[in-house]
Each structure stands twice: as structure tokens, then as C-alpha cells.
Amino acid sequence: MTVLDGTPAGPVIAPGERSSHRPDIQGMRALAVGLVVAFHAGLPIPGGFVGVDVFFVISGFVITAMLMRQKAHSGRINFARFYGRRFLRLTPALALLVTVVALASLVLQGPFGAQQTTASTGLGAMLLVANVVISHASGDYFADAATTNPLLNTWSLSVEEQFYLVFPGLLVLGWFLARKSRLGPLVLVVVLACASFSLSIVTTYSPSTDQLSWFGGPLSFAYFSSLTRAWEFAVGAVLALCLARIPLLRRSHLVVLSGVGVFLLVAASLLLSDSTPFPGVAALLPVLGAALLLFTGSQGTTLAGRVLGSRPLVTVGDISYSWYLWHWPVIVFSVLLWPDRPLVAVIAAIGSLIPAVVSYRYVENPLRHLKLQAHWKRVLIGVGTLAPPLAVCLTLLIGANMGWGLTDATGISTPFQSTGLSSSTVATRVSPDAAGDDPSTSGGLRSDHIAIQAGCVNVPLTVDTCVFGPADAPQILLAGDSQSYAVADGVIAAATALGYSTQVASRTGCPFLGLPSSGAHDIPCQAWQSDVLAYAKTHRPALVIIANRSTGYVHPEIRWRTVARPDGGRATSITEAAALYRTALGTVLTALSSEHIPVIVLNAVPDMKGYVDRTSLAAQAFGAADFGKSLNSLVAQREPAMAVETSLASSIAGVSMVDPFPSLCTDRECWARRGGDPWYQDEQHVSVFGSLRLEEPIRIAITQALAR
């Protein structure tokens, strides 16, 4: 009897109906899951994600009504019985899903990032914190890093379960206070709703700040946090608490109100989209729409209620929890296996009904009727349910982090040293996620990149740290986001060959520009950017090399990062993003040029989307070893950034560029892996092997820049 589980709603006390079941609520669940599935399948329902908000309102309403009935019947709330029923109803089906998805991930996903994300999310789902894990790892719900996570949909289950943990106690507190004052459960829930809605507004429309960077930033916090979603449950709870006090309305009034409810849900599903700041004010559409349908269904029968209570919709509502669980991983894995097949997501969404029905028939229904009177039986079913998914996910996470026993996948070592640490130290590779986590400490692999080994990522820049190459030699400063550590081996090799040392300043997700970036994670960049520029002006290196993922900053449609607008938000078009990038890069180049410090801008390496999928066991067994992408498509992708960089290099004294494409591409294709040699460690970052392929053009560019 939960928001997503599809359990029949049971009796809800209301005026004029002492104890009647609510088939219309099952129909509302069917509508909600249908919206979500259609959205994930890519059908033209841009706001279908609001189906989750409908689920939340239903959950608040049904759970509150159930607890009220329990108190009315026995005079108290049996917490053990409540949580035991919730566990049996939700957890076994979730455990089955997580176990199957983790095993599928072992075969179908690559170990460099994808498996780690799946394993971490699976652990989070079983420990009721998937929303926190997903927000921290992926940030934006609509970003690529999130939409390729086969357990992304479990975030809402964790939000719901967190609500279950707190809400019964809140009701009990309200009933206790009602004995001594006018405070009661209704007042407490209303206060909760107002506080939660206010927090949702503040964080949804907040400019980029770093106060909530631990949760992925304000917008990510607003979307995934149970604190900003609590008001949606509370709306349903307030309705259940007030229902007996509301007089019966005329049928004509009910028809109008139910029509308004339907209109609000239709408007939300068609007018909202992934570009709408959400939840915030926009969430009022589905929340109020759902509340109106629940209210009118409690008062009497309307056309909307009859449609929602029809047998087909009730049947779908019964399996809505299972369908919600299974549809998304089936879609993700199907698209991974057949990326270029039309309608594969739609077919997968429909096909996911098969495991959903099987789960409902053989897991949900049998287990929800279990009578576990003996304590040892409850312990046994708890351990038996939780142990398999936790064990499988832990194994997947540890194995992926260790590269499944493989050593130094690049096969490359370099002779340079920093503070006694040799870059030839054997280590496996890192897959820093695109949202900007520290690759040395996040769920990624350790890296054989010399900058990672020396701990030169996301640390303050000081005069005696992260310096590589000849001692007491003139210095070259390499600065930028995660691209700077990825290309560091090639830069160090080039600089050392010319008798220079190299200092590496790398901060993931933070480009070395004159403005901070804004994206799924609100990373504190501005202070670091200012420090690097001040350091260059003070210590005056012989040359500065800037290496950023410039292609990413000019393409807001990939939902990664752009240069921040004045209000702290992301750009919404390529034109706007490119203009912001020009301003930000131009600020730094002009500042360095005015100090007569030569600058080399390393143009973006090709983005090799799809490469990590080819590192899976299935791809290795049945696919070709090499991985390449069309040169023409990649050139077109980076054209906006190249146009900015070329224009600035031609107009600002002392600025030149290095193009990595000739070193990583042939006349037709760019390669992530060729002839058994991995040139990339993930989709956006070159490996040590790939980095060293850039050594020659970088060495030539340094020679020419210093000769001017």
C-alpha cells in the first residue's frame, strides 16, 4: 500500500462512504506509471516525469488514511507491523531487481565508471539512500550520466521510504500534542508542507552556489531530496486528515473539480519538460491535479473516477510498482545493446511488462501475505532479502574498482618523478564522472596518470607541489579541468624533452577560465580559478598551457556544464554558451597576455561517446577490439569551441593552439582504442597512451611559442 507498489488502496474513510475500496486510486497509479514509462521511452510526453509526483501525493493520502484507521481501531499505531508490512511489500521486489541489474551490468556495462555507478546505486537503493547516491554521482536527473544509470528510477523509492521512516512518528506526535493544545497532526503536517515547499522553491531557483555541492548543488538537491519533496506527500496527508470534515459537494461541483484535476495533469505532462526548473512552482500542477482527483473520488463518482476505476487501468495499477521497477533498466540495457535501432526504447518499455508481471505474480503477491509471527522468521526473511543484492553489488563495485584483476591497462609507464613518486607505479585506471567528482577519491578506479598518482587533482596550487621534470628548470604551468590531468603525461614529456619542468593544476569540472562553470554539480570553481591566475601572475612561468573540455562547455544540450551566466545558471543554447565561453576564455588570455606570459590553448580532444560500453564483457566477447567514430561528426561537434579559440588566438598577442585531432584521428575516424592500444580511459579523457601521442605536437607548439 505505497505510492509505487500497486497495492489496492483499501478502504478510505470519507463522508458518505464508510468503508469502500478505491479502484480509482489504482487507476491513478496506472496513469502515473504510464506517464513515467512514456517519458522514459522517448514518446512525445515531455513532462511525463511528473508521474512520480502523482505517486507521492497518492502515497501521502493512502498511508495517512491507513494510519488513521489503525489508530481508530486499536487506539495506537503498531510501528512494528507498519514497517514490517512496508518491508515485505517493497523490499523483496526491489532486491530481485537490484540483483538482476547488477549481474546484467557485469556483462553489459564497462568497468570504467558504468559498473561502479550501477553498483553504488544498487547499494544505495537497498540502504534507502539511492536519491543521495544518484544526486552525488550524476547530479541532474536528465543528464547523460544519470540517464545511462539502469537504477536511476530507484531514487524515488528511497524518497518514499524516507517518508515512511519519519511520517508515522510525526502523526503520533501530533496526536499526543492534540491532547494538551490545539496543535495536532494537521497543524504539524501543514507546517511541514510549507517548510518543504519553501525549501523546494529556494533551491530550485537558487543561483549556482557551493553550499550544497555535497548533494550535487541546489537544483539537484531540489529534485532528489526528500526534504524538498515532503510537501508533495504532505498534500495527500492533509487531504486524508481533512476529508471527514469536508461536507459533501454537489455532483456538478465534483465534475468541475475532477475536470480541473485532469486538466492540470495533462498540462503538466505536455507543457513541462526537462528544461523546466523542477520541482519548484511547476510541481504544483501534478500535485494539485492528483489531489483534486483523490478528493473528488472520495466524495462520489464522476466520469474521471469511472475511467480511472475501469478494469484495464486497475489491472495496470496493480502491477504499477513492478512495472516502475523494471521498465527503466530494460530500456537502458536495450538501448545499450541496440543504440541505433529505431523505437528500441518503446519496444523495451512494453517488453518490460513481462518481468514486471513475473515479479508481481511470484514475488510481490506471495510475500505480502506472509504471516511472520516468530522473530526468527522475520530475521530470516530480512537477511535472505537483503544479503543477495548487497553481496552482488559489493562484489561488482570492488571488482570494477580493481579493474577485475587487470593491471595497468594502458601498458604505458613514464620515467618522470614528483616528490619521489614515479609515474611508472603500477595502478589501474580511473573513470572520473562527467559531473566533476574527484577521480582520486570517488567511485572510480585509481589511475596510472602521473598527476593522479601524485595527488594533483582538486588540491590548492602552491609553488612546490605537483612539479614534474628537471629540478630547478624554468617552469611550464598546465591548468584546467580534468582534461589537464588527462593530458599531463604528454605535456610533461614534451616539456622535459625541452629542458622545462611542468606544474599541474587540475580541478575536475572547473575550467581555467575567467568565469565559473554551472551544471549538474555546483562546484566551487571561482576561488580556484582566481588563485591559478594570481599564481601565474606572481610566479611568471615560462608558458601556460590551458586544457579544458571546451566542447562540453559550448553544448548545453548534453546537460553537462556551461560557463555560468551572470545569474549562475547554465546557458540554454549553443550560441549563448559559446558567447559565455568566449568571454570567460578571453578574460584569462588577455590577463596573461598583458603580463607577457605565452599561452597555448589545447583544443578539446574528441568526445568518444559509447566507448565505455565497448569495454564490457559482452562487447569484448562479440565486438571488435578497436573503437572509432566518424571524424566529420566529431569535428562538427567541437566547431563552436574551435571558432572561439581560433578567433582569440588570432587577436590576442602571445596565444597559440595545439590541435589533438591529428594525433588521435585518421582522415576518416578518431580512435579511442586501436590495434589493442587504449588511447582513451573513458569517453572524454585520454589514457596515458593517448596523452603521450600528444607529446610531439605539444613539444613543437612549446618550441614555437617560446621562440616568439
Can you tell me the overall shape? elongated
Proportion of beta-strand residues = 5-15%
Q: What number of structural domains do the residues give? A: 2
What is the strand arrangement across the widest sheet?
A: 3-5-4-7-9-11
Over the alpha carbons, how many angstroms does the gyration radius reach?
Answer: 28 Å
Q: How helix-rich are the residues, as a percent range?
A: 55-70%
Q: Summarize the main sheet.
A: 6 strands, mixed
Alpha plus pi helix count: 29
Structural class: alpha/beta
Ranges where pLDDT stays below 50 over 5 or more residues in a row are 6-20, 407-447
State the end-to-end CA separation.
74 Å
Count of β-strands: 13
Mean pLDDT: 85
List keywords for this structure.
708 residues; alpha/beta; 3-stranded antiparallel β-sheet; elongated; Rossmann fold; single chain; 56% helix
Can you put this structure into words, describing what you see?
The protein has 708 residues and is an alpha/beta fold. The protein folds into two domains: 23-400, no CATH class; 411-707, Rossmann fold, CATH 3.40.50. Helix content is 56%, strand content 7%. The protein has 29 helices and 13 strands. It has a six-stranded mixed beta sheet with strand order 3-5-4-7-9-11, with helices on both faces. Strands 10-12-13 form a three-stranded antiparallel beta sheet. Strand 1 (417-418) and strand 2 form a beta hairpin. The longest helix has 30 residues, at 79-108.
